[in-house]
Write a structure and sequence with these properties.
The protein has 11 helices and 10 strands. With 289 residues, it is of the alpha/beta class.
Length: 289
Amino acid sequence: MARLPEWIRCSLRTDKEYAHVQQLLNDLGLHTVCEDANCPNRLECWNSGTATMMIMGDTCTRNCAFCAVASGTPEKLRRDEPQRVAEAAHELGLRHLVLTSVTRDDLDDGGAGVFADCIAAVRALMPDTTIEVLIPDFKGDRTALGRVLKAAPDVLNHNIETVRRLQAQIRPQASYQCSLDVLRTAAAWPGGPAVKSGIMVGLGETDSEVQETLHDLYQAGCRLLTIGQYLAPSPDHWPIDRYVDPQTFSNYACRAREIGFEAVASAPLVRSSYQAAEMVAALKENAYA
């Protein structure tokens, strides 16, 4: 691929809030998807005093072709992790917490219980903080998913990642239909959370396939959506097929809103948890409009 276009580049500035976030997370022994997935927005988010915490270690049991997170044998669970997550959220004064994880296919429930415990710990310490969980598919186990939903997160996010045609190559241990089923189950949960998903572009999909995926997500009950540019973490990962220009991202957003999505973030550097608090605020405003 050609060199990065101008619209992909971001500031490398750091300030005192960045150092505070970094030190706090290090002191509490917490991982973040910001670091482990090489998120291009880490500087912006940490400078603003927020981060997306990644629970259950930093090693994934899956090996998706797009992902920078290490794959291998995960570490043992640490029983005090939910309390450490809550402490970090409290120290940072988060009004909206995004909590994700590596995929833990080695665990009987895929780590669903840890998500539930983290939600409970944060609720006990910060009852007014909204909580968003970005979950794996739990291999389609509805009982595991139910454990997370019973803990009552405000937003349940599960990324479809790419279009149907590319799933087997990009996510060989996952499936397009399983991801849709996760979203559909969450959307049907009585009194359940807002349902969110995301897709990357630049993996080899066509614009018509992107639109097909948007329709599939909406039909599954998803109402919050993120669309961002895929950036290969290394030459060994799936190659970038194209850099999608900002106007095309704007067109995707317009189409998504026409379909019925209630909140959409679509731009080159958008990631699953980028400006997640603002998206939830926009959703609430729409509800009261």
